[in-house]
Every structure is written in structure tokens, then in C-alpha cells.
Fold this sequence. Notes:
Blueprint: H1 15-53, H2 59-91, H3 93-113, H4 117-120, H5 123-153, H6 159-163, H7 165-188, H8 191-196, H9 201-218, H10 224-232, H11 239-242, H12 246-278, H13 282-310, H14 313-336, H15 340-358, H16 361-366, H17 374-390, H18 393-402, H19 407-426
Helix pairs in contact: 1-2, 1-3, 1-5, 1-7, 1-9, 2-3, 2-5, 2-17, 3-5, 3-9, 5-17, 7-13, 12-13, 12-14, 12-15, 12-17, 12-19, 13-15, 14-15, 14-19, 18-19
Amino acid sequence: MTDQVIKATGDHLDIADVERRIKAIFIGSIGNLVEWYDFYAYTAFALYFAPAFFPNSDPVVQQLNAAVLFAATFLMRPLGGWLFGYIADRYGRRLSLTLSVVCMCFGSLIIAVTPTYASIGILAPCILALARIIEGLSLGGEYGASATYLSEVADPKHRGFYSSFQYVTLIGGQLTAIIVLLLLQKVFLTPEELRNWGWRIPFVIGALLAIFAAVMRRGLHETEAFEEAKKVSKPSGSITGLLKYPRELLLVVGLTAGGTAAFYTFTTYMQTFVKLSVGLTEDQTTFVIFGSLIFATLLQPIYGALSDRIGRKPLLIFFGVVGTLATVPILTTLKETKSPFMAFLLICAAWIFVAGYTSINAIVKAELFPTNVRALGVGLPYAITVSVFGGTAPAVALYFKSLGHEDWFYYYLSGMIFLSLIIYATMRDTKHESAMHRHE
């Protein structure tokens, strides 16, 4: 049975074909949500489990140690981008997607069952580091494989819309982690129970969800593009093959740098910024971030569908121009406000331009490369760039804050977006000049 059940003919909508594609998008995306839930659960619950692994009289040192492990996972992402990109291009998208989520399952399970420092001493933080390395490897591979799969399974007229669900589920993973945190904090457990053993629960949930996603992914159809590419030439997925496209590789780095810095600023770092710099309470911070992430989630498919009508380039340029001009005023005003509602509105205002990047960056990268190196071409340079500019954004912000010049970070972020704007303005519009049909 071929992957293509029934083709759409003429202008008539083929319901069977649409259903098949939607099912594939859902299964491909749900694994992405699980992976990002597991990843963000670490950040969300670090406050509770850090003392169990990093005993120290200074709580700041405990949090710093946990933050260092968070950064270490970003160093593993390029290796994951290479490994799972190679598997996806050589052996198929389905296998790569399944293995990446199985990896994340192991990482979460290890964290859930690892004894504390009081029980096994220095082995406890060492095992925690191993778990985070496994998770970083998995997450590094997930992006390229899922971006490739979603772009190839979508019909040509709606690739932007379908691929936007990668960031819907990516942000959804963070929302899910926050929901689990709120339920455990407010409904089921006391603060003492959370510190003693309750912090293990979200990682058990993550491991179980990952098993569920892996089983679902095993039933995915391989993409037609990969099957067609195998007929044209033997799949390789090699670095040597990828180096034949140096311009495309540099484009991925350039168009990602500013976008990933903005994304991690308004997701991972924003919780710290709103709490420490704006001065909101923990509950206010949680609800402001939660609400702004819901708003961001709703924007993704809207912008993705818009890119199918007007092209990818206008949205990227919109992000670049508005992001360059509005970042400093938004962050400056945000720091000065004391109103949770105003903070929510300002972060939502930032998402109006950040979504111009997040909603379509995956499909833009996929459309740059031919099928035989697409997953590797999307995943590896992206993972390297995220490790350098995305994962470090919170650390850079906190460093400037420690110097007493927090506003320097506003200009740093604005400058990063401007550098990417130069790339957006000079690159081709991949909607109109796509490599999706090339299987060389």
C-alpha cells in the first residue's frame, strides 16, 4: 500500500487525502510536544529538585548548577542534529522520529528514578548530567526530523500551515509543563511533598507520554519524497553530501540566529525576567507567561497559513524589521511596569513579530535542501546556531544584569534580529523557489 491513498484532483477537495495528511501531522507533532514537555519540565521543577542533587547552603549555587546542566544539553544538540539527521536521510524519517522520542523517554525515566545526593553522593549529579545529555541529544535530532517530515507530508499549497504545528506543539510542551507544575503546586501536593519526592512525578509523566508517542510514530507512513529519493539515488545523509550546499547551510545559520535568540528570550528567559526584573509574584508570573504562550500558540497556524498565500519572505522581513525596532521599547517598558495585565499585553505584543519567525522557520529550512540531505541540512546547522545564540540568551541577559546594565541585553537582542534581517532581505523566497521537488 502506497503512502498516497488518494490524490486530490483538479480543484476538488479530497477528504481521504486531507484526513491522511492531518493524521500524519498530528502523530508527527504530538511526539514533538512530548519531547519539549520533557525538556521544559526540567526548568519548571529545577527549584524543587536542585537541593536533592546539589547540596549547598547557598540556594543560588544550587540553581546555578541546575542551569549549567541546562546549558550542557544545548552542547549535545548539534550531535543530535547530526545523528538523527543522518538516520532520517539514510534510513527514513519515521525511524528517526521514533528513535528520538525513545531517547527522550530514557532521559526522563533516569531523572525520575535517580537517588538523591544524600543516598549515593556524587553519583547523583553525574547520573542527572547523563540524563540531560541524552535529552539534549534527542531534542537536537527531533527538530530536523520533524521539520522534514511535516514539510514532506503536507500538500504543496499548505506547507506553511501544516509545518507551523511544529511550534504549536513546541510551545505546547512548555504549556503542558506549566500545567503539571500548577496542578502539583496548587491541587495535589504541599511544597514539602514537592521538594521531597513530588518533583519526580512530571518526569514519570514525560516518560509515559514518550512511550505513547513512540508507539504512535511506529505506525507512521514514510514520506513519498523519501521513497522517491531512494529510486533516484542511494540515500546517504552524509556530511560530505551536505557540504555540497554551503550557501544553504549558511542561510540556515543566518536566518536562525536572531529568531532563536528572540524565541528563548520570550519563553525560557521571560519567566525569570518578569519575576526578578518586573517584580511580579510567582503566581502572577506563572499566569502571565501561561497566557502569553497560549496567545503565541494561536498565532502559529495563522501566520503559517498566511505564508502559503503571500510567501515566506514577507513574514521573515516583518519579524526582522519590527523585532529590530520594537525589542528595546517593549523590554524597557516591560521592566518599568508593575501591572501583570500590562506585562501580559507587552509580551503578547512581542509575540506578534516573533511569530513571523517561529511559525515558518522550519518550512523555510526544509525548502532550502533536496530530499537526500534535507533532515541533516535542517537539523545540524540549526542545532549549532541554537546552541550558540538561543540557549545562551538567558545567560547573556543574566550576565548583563549582574553588571548592572540589564538594558545592554535589549540592544544585544535587537542587534541579533537585525543581523538576521539582512539575511531575510537578501535570500530567495523559498515558497516560490523551493527545493522540495529535488531528490538528487
